[in-house]
Amino acid sequence: MLRCKSLLSQTINKKRKKNKSKNKNKNSNTRVSKKQNYEEEEDCEEGFNLKTSAAPSHTHGVQPLGNLYINPGSINSRNTGLGNLQTLTDELVLDILGLLGGTHLGVLATVSKSFYVFTNHEPLWRNLVLENLNAGFLYNGSWKSTFVAACYPSFDVSSVGVSGLRVSDFYSDYLFQSWLCANLEMKPEWLQRDNIIRRKGISVEDFVLNFEEPNKPVLLEGCLDNWVALQNWDRDYLLRLCGDVQFAVGPVDMKLQEYFRYSDQVREERPLYLFDPKFAEKVPKLGSEYEVPAYFREDLFGVLGNERPDYRWIIMGPAGSGSSFHIDPNSTSAWNAVIRGSKKWILFPPDVVPPGVHPSPDGAEVACPVSIIEWFMNFYGATKNWEKKPIECICKAGEVIFVPNGWWHLVINLEESIAITQNFVSRRNLLNVLDFLKRPNANALVSGTRDRVNLHDKFKNAIETSFPGTIDQLVQKAEEKKAQQKQSFWDSVTDSKVGAFKFSF
Ligand SMILES: O=C(O)CCC(=O)C(=O)O
């Protein structure tokens, strides 16, 4: 195997040079020409830049499938090394390998170059770690070595290079794309559009009238100026305060110090994100070092006391982490305050499903690209011609974004970031939330609480008790507004003077 490694890397180096000179003179828009110079180059064609950090990239030399056709005489060792399994798609091969434990993956890796590449696919090892080592693990440069170090402490993982062997003739779009998405920098054109309304120092009435009532996003500046968190919350402070406290990180709990160890080393397509709804109970000082901005103080779920669904989260993650397209839970609105770092936001109104996003008819599930960066690569361009342009911005430390209910949103951290977000229900949104909680599939839709089916009745009763008559008043107001809207529509279509469309037979 070692002899093999040195031969292979020579071949790769030669090929890399050849491809580079070819590409310079070509302006094809196929996937192949975009990506063929991927191997540890800083720049890809067409403005793609690869990350420059020293973290290993675990490519094993996988090339996009199109390169097979421009490398005459090349045989795809992906197929020869899989034997009869070669007819399966890459996803299926990986699904099957996902059923195996670490030992069997390790044995299979010795079967052929193809099995070596597939069994070293990092997400397989990530799943093994997250599923089997949820009592704690120390990230060790790669998920595979993390798993091996935890399961076989006597084995010296440092003796095996983390980036592993390189295979010269393995072609797979699926595996290549996974590697590319983990290593791609955000393109400047993905960050340029900034069309959100920004406001500083507006009154609560102004906010309600111009943004909350019409359900429109706004970026608020200057309203965190007196937050202690804005002064204090950096890594050193947080490590001193709660370095050994466990926070929710994806499907596992991790000590903050271990999460930072992971996020310092990691370079993967979907970095684990620290997103903890119980942070203020775990570390009360964190809860006391910020306050809800005046615009969002009416929070009617509060009437449920301890039975309210999860509503506040501390969020931390490295560059590239974030939240893929979703609508916020239970039809609530939200605010998100950046304390450190910066976040790119893309928001679509409730009646526009973003490109590349496919919600199920009942809204309970959403199919979307594997990662945020994949969405940018494959779908961001489509928003240029989309019927309703998204609202976009970069939200920086000290700024807060208001996310109105029902809006689709995607967020990616442009640098290591720390934020607080809260979801809330005010009078402006109460009827929407009650309607949502009453849907026939509430059991699948409602989230953040165990008692999903009964939440509607509990909430409605608690509101009736704390604010008698409020729901009736809101219903009446909503009906009046609807009637008014109907009226003004008919006024406009029947009044030829206003120049609107007029019926004629
Ligand atoms: O990653 C983030 O900061 C955004 C979080 C978010 O979208 C949400 O809480 O709904």
Automatic annotation (TrEMBL):
Region (Disordered): 13-40
Subcellular location: Nucleus
Superkingdom of origin organism: Eukaryota
Subcellular location, principal: nucleus
UniProt keyword list: Iron, Metal-binding, Nucleus, Oxidoreductase
Stretches assigned to the JmjC domain: 281-441
A GO CC term assigned to this protein in UniProt: nucleus
GO molecular function: cis-regulatory region sequence-specific DNA binding; metal ion binding; oxidoreductase activity
UniProt-listed Gene3D superfamilies: 1.20.1280.50, Cupin
Entry-linked PROSITE patterns: JMJC (PS51184)
Protein name according to UniProt: JmjC domain-containing protein
Lineage: Eukaryota, Viridiplantae, Streptophyta, Embryophyta, Tracheophyta
